[in-house]
Amino acid sequence: MEKDNASILKIGNVIAVKGRTIEVAVDKMKNASHLLFNGNVVKNVSVGSYIKITKGFSELIGKIESEFIQEDKLNIASNYYNSKNKIKRILSITLVGFINSENQEKEFKQGLKELPLIENECYLLTENEFELIHKFAKDDEVAIQIGTLLNETSVTIKLGVDRLFASHIGIFGNTGSGKSYTLAKIYHELFNQYKNEPKFQENAKFVLIDFNGEYVNPKTNEGTYEKIILEEDYKDEFILGDGNSKFPISKESIENVEILSILLDATEKTQKPFLDSVLNYSSFKKNEFSFNEFIDTEIIKVLLSKKDKNLGVKVLIDLFKDIKDCFIEPEIHDKISSFINENIDFKSDNGSYFLKNGLKGRENQTDNERYPEYEPKNIEVHFYIPLIGLVKEINFSNDSLFNLKLKIVLKYYKDVVSGYVNPEFIGPLKGRTIKIFRQLQNLIDVVEAKSSNTKLVTILSLKNINEQSIKKVLPLVICKEYYENHKINNEKKDKYLNIIVDEAHNILSKSSTRESETWKDYRLETFEEIIKEGRKFGVFLTIASQRPSDISDTIISQLHNYFLHRLINNKDIEAIGRTVSYLDKVSFESLSILPQGACILAGLCADLPVVIKVDKIEDVYKPYNETIELTKHWK
Predict the structure, then answer these.
(1) CA 465 – CA 396 distance, rounded (Å)
(2) Which of 62, 106, 298, 327 has the fewest Cβ atoms within 10 angstroms?
């Protein structure tokens, strides 16, 4: 720095060194809000700005955290011409890095190289130095531009692709603060830069879990809005619950005892072991297995051997009612129902079933005479044997989801008639199975093996799913499946998977009371494994949420890069302060007053925390979540 420039930009000297915290006494002639430098008005030091401390040939950079005044006691006896001169202005500064001059080109390095000494001189940053410390991407590094400094819009913020996207990203902020916009912006810039690269399409995969339908092309009865988010050639959209889309899930993933137990809300001690017995039952694993034969040999034939024929009739009536939607031809079920109705009746006063044929010739008898005990030979000849013939006519659906439901229901009835289970304990599980699988059949398509020929981005919209348990479990199943498959198929370490979860508090909440502790633990452990171990396999997580306090501290603390929008709730602010180590005091205290569209950028991709204004993106690429303009629709 030239001597003349140095004298103008010098603002004081170091008077105290307390670890990373440095105190600087400001020269009395440098207390104005602005200075004149080379014909320009330069903003003077203030809280939140940066200064340079020179120590020999070393240049240390610090950020002003606070300032205060002290009385100049050394010259207290002097005759001051102005009482203001008795006061010393002191700056409290935290060291954030240094300017490395080892190479031909200077560069800013984050971290602590050395501490200054007392009386080291302190300077305002020149324009070039200010831009240097905000240059987060090197000249030879591929970068994307995401915005500008909030208070210095002439300084653009570019982030290196490697340091940003080979990391776990957290985007937090209250509703309406701009977090979904930021999420769309950073990935829009990435796709714009790489989407036409064949290697990018071959080696990269993005999966977006969209709880509110903000990233799919919105449709109405009048047609399609002019929003494309991402061009059709690069994305697969699944709008679950709209009656048209079904998401493919591998048979291996759905036939997992942990997933099934969570999906069906199975109790740990009784219902989960039953599900495990269903998945491992030897009869179901036979090459020539037939549901028709199973009903015949393991249910009806067992019932024939029982003395209580009344129980047998009730079981069969309930069984065929429960598996009705698994028939390919509904008329076969109607035929079986008609046969049962024509031959069996129910006596309400003692809760027993009887053969209608037993009423013939007994019209004038008393009730006790008209309803005799079952005769085993009669019930076998007139009911069971004809029913077996009808069972053999059934054609069951080959759909894997229907087959899994059939196995659970049939195994339940098999164990009931054999006396292996108590219906009071397992019956509720059977009821939930029928209800939940009825909903799942409109949402997922169970396949033997999932195709790897998918597009660059898979968007999964859950907006139309009303059942909260399914809305939580499906993303878990899908994310776990992608993660496990990627681990197996990425031996060369050349594949990249980014799982993006918008409104992540829906599935990463640590305080939800709607679920069992077992389900909560499994859910959190799954995502904690992804965020702790995924980096080794090329799997990264991006989460956006308006309630960081609801999300596991382990997950938030393992994130590498943060985009922090306005947060109002004290618990959310405390959660950020407790887990994000990159924030300085000034940035942390500004979280609650950030304007819309502004955020604090902190993490590995930025050498120091900065407040940025996110650049605009074209309207057609914005997420579909704009606040309604009331006056536009009211007049």
Answers:
(1) 28
(2) 106
